[in-house]
Amino acid sequence: MVIGWSVGHFGIFVTKEEVAHPAMNWAGILLALVSIGLYFPIKPNTKKKESAAPSETDRLINSEEEIGIVSGSNKGVQPKSEMHNKMIGVLLSMLAGILYASNVIPVKRLQDEPRFHGTHYLLAFTLSHFLGIFAMSTVLLVIYCLYKRNRPQVFPESLLPGVAAGLMWGVAQAGMFVANANLGLSITFPIICTGPGVVASLWGVLAFKEVSGFRNLAWLLGAFTVTVSGILLITFSH
What we know:
Blueprint: H1 2-10, H2 22-38, H3 56-61, H4 64-67, E1 68-70, E2 77-79, H5 82-102, H6 105-111, H7 126-147, H8 159-183, H9 185-207, H10 214-236
Antiparallel strand pairs: 1-2
C-alpha cells in the first residue's frame, strides 16, 4: 500500500498525481496504516479436531524433508523455531507487497502516455501483462522441478482452488488497471490494499469461525471502522 501510494503521489516512474484535498488523502493513508495494526491483537482460533485423519497436504507439510532438521540419531526430527518461521513469513510478505505494488507500474506508465489516452486503451496491456506472469510462473515451476529432481511437492487439494483464485485475481487485476487509469495510484492502492482485509476477515468470522470471543470481535469491529473511515477519506480526497 505504501509503495503503490508513494509511486503515484511522488511520481516515481509515472506521472505525478495531484489530488483535490491532499490533507484528506494523507489522513486516509494514515488511518489505513493504523487499521492494519489493529488486526494484530486479534487471536484466531487454532484448535483442530484430533479425531480428523491427516490429509495428504498435512502429511507432506510435516515431512522431515521439508520442515524438519535431524539433530542427531537419537533425537529424531526437531521442528524449526516458531519465531524463525514468523520472521521468514514477515520478510516474504513484505517482498510480496513490494512486488505486488511494482507490477502495475509499467502498465500505469504506458497509460499515462498521450498516445494511449482514452477509455478504449485502459485494458490494452492486460494480455501482455498476464502472459508475462504466466511465462515467469512456468519458468519458476521448471526450475523448482529441476531442483527437486523431478519430484515436486504437490498439494492435490489446492489445484482447483488455485485455478479459481487465479481467475478471480485476473478479473480483479483488470479492474485495477481501469481504476488506476481513472483515479490514480494514490487513490486506488490504499483502497485495494485495505478493503480486501475486511472481506477476508468476514470470511474468517462467518465462514471459517476463525475469530470468536467478545475481545477479538471488538478489536475486529474497531479495525473495520478505522479501515472504512480511511477508505472514505481517500476516496473523497479525489
